[in-house]
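Sample pair:
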Amino acid sequence: MRTSLELLRLEGAVFLRAEYREPWTYESMSGPVTANLLRPGSDRVILFHVVAAGTCWVAVDGGPRHWARAGDVIVLPYGDQHQMGGLTDAEVVPIAAFMPPPPWPSMPVLRHGVDGSQTDVVCGYLHSRDPLFDPALQALPAVFVVTPPPGAGAQWVRANIEYALTQTSAGSSGVATRLPELLLVEVLRLHLASAPAVDRGWAAALRDPVLAPALAAIHARPAQRWTVDDLAAVALVSRSQLDTRFREVLGRSPIRYLTQWRMHVAQDLLSTTDLAVLAVAHRAGYESEEAFSRAFKRHFGSSPSAWRAVSGPARAASSS
């Protein structure tokens, strides 16, 4: 199954504005804490930062600095904890030191730094259960910067920036939901069109001649009682060849991937339908509700019913 950007389900959009003055550096909260703060009950969120003016860098987990300039878009598809800073090194300050906790009566303008040149950033937050944003599958880099090519693409991103700046400076309590959704989809399209081919991860597996047939079978029929021999037969390779290829490209065994995909299917059904837990269990490949509940709790830390209570359709309806 290849994710279609046009069919991405994105929700819970938030825009806010930030003004940073040299020298400055901050560290975000952890991914789960950020997600729960912006969308209570959620365990992950997609972050993107559009640089309206100035220059800054971002780094994840002590990794290299990725630099961005006016017009660039920084994307953290899994909402990982990260550091951002300007041209001059500065003491790292936790973002909680200058970001007021929600709920916000109007969108806040975050201000941090000293008295040097200013970098303006429009920050966007979205939520999605699409496998493209599942940290376990690692379809995308933890952080990347997209520079829209000159022409209509860059002009469209600039229009988004100006609209968000206007809305937040006017004290608006929010920006039209579809705006950040469309912006993120366009940025992902640009990234996927220009990103170099990779030989590891979910995106690579979807193009791999051995793995692609096996993944397509799992995605199409997750409830089937798959064995490694069954999947190897679908891929027309030996059991050992399939197992080796899964570990080389996806870093896990075929059965572990199958379990993770079933958990993704279950999570999607719990969050978007009112199916009974037993029906969800059957669709995710579990014969009994008890076995499914044990696997779900082991994977997500709570039972299916408890997870649905804070993340499912009933919650979405009550918050709309």
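The chain has two domains: 5-194, 202-318.
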